Amino acid sequence: MRTDPVRVLLVDDHPAILDSVARAVAAAADLELAGTARSLDEARAALVGKPGAIDVVVSDVQLAGEAEGLRLLEAVGQDGPAVLLLSSFDQPPLIRTAFDRGAAGYLIKTSEVSEILDAVRTVAGGGTAFSAAMLRAIRSAPRRPSEREIQVLELLCGGASNDEIGGRLGVTEKTVESHLRRLFDRYAVLSRTELAVLAIREGWVAEKGRP
């Protein structure tokens, strides 16, 4: 049975949420606030060269308007601390991506702070913090596009032509056509309009940026 406190790193660019969870962690006898970060770079700096110093990372999925929490999963890797993600979005493809990339849990930001602390304890003990509904959604969710495909979709949803997309991304029009063809085939859509509607509906692309 564990006797030392669970050391927690909090990562969120919303000061009110960061401060609220930080206070709760600091007040819990079995938890220890190991640090806070407000960006992916700050989180990486807090982890580099400190193996074993942090047991659980609690991170927002969206940092600075980007899905940086997913990138943090890659930075932590399999041998790093458990990562519990928080998000305002509950789209199944986003949750599936978090699951596939090794997240130990996923909670909606409207969760009570007590739920977040209980999830921290669960993942620190080697468990997972995905609800049964989330696990069912993961099984049926379409695979989230790659980061490059997301960039293509964002520009497509903004009305850009293939030539314009290629110019913005620094690739040829033929490369853009290849990306779109793979997306059409993978998601069984027949037009750019259908693909754009799917991307927005699934939360891959939001009207004002990524989820």
Task: Show the helix and strand layout.
Layout: E1 6-11, H1 15-27, E2 31-37, H2 40-47, E3 56-60, H3 68-76, E4 82-87, H4 92-100, E5 105-108, H5 113-124, H6 132-140, H7 147-157, H8 162-169, H9 173-187, H10 192-201
Parallel strand pairs: 1-2, 1-3, 3-4, 4-5
Helix pairs in contact: 1-5, 2-3, 4-6, 7-8, 8-9
Mean pLDDT: 89
- Cα Rg: 19 Å
Order of helices and strands: EHEHEHEHEHHHHHH
Low-confidence segments? none
Kindly state the number of beta strands.
5
Structural write-up:
This protein is α/β, with parallel strands linked by helices and 211 residues long. Helix content is 49%, strand content 13%. It contains ten helices and five strands, in the order βαβαβαβαβαααααα. It has helices at 15-27, 40-47, 68-76, 92-100, 113-124, 132-140, 147-157, 162-169, 173-187, 192-201; strands at 6-11, 31-37, 56-60, 82-87, 105-108. A five-stranded parallel β-sheet has the order 2-1-3-4-5, with helices on both faces. β1, α1 and β2 form a beta-alpha-beta unit. α4 crosses α6 and α7 crosses α8 (162-169). The termini are far apart.
Structure summarized in a few sentences:
By secondary structure, this protein is α/β, with parallel strands linked by helices. It has helices at residues 15-27, 40-47, 68-76, 92-100, 113-124, 132-140, 147-157, 162-169, 173-187, 192-201, and strands at residues 6-11, 31-37, 56-60, 82-87, 105-108.
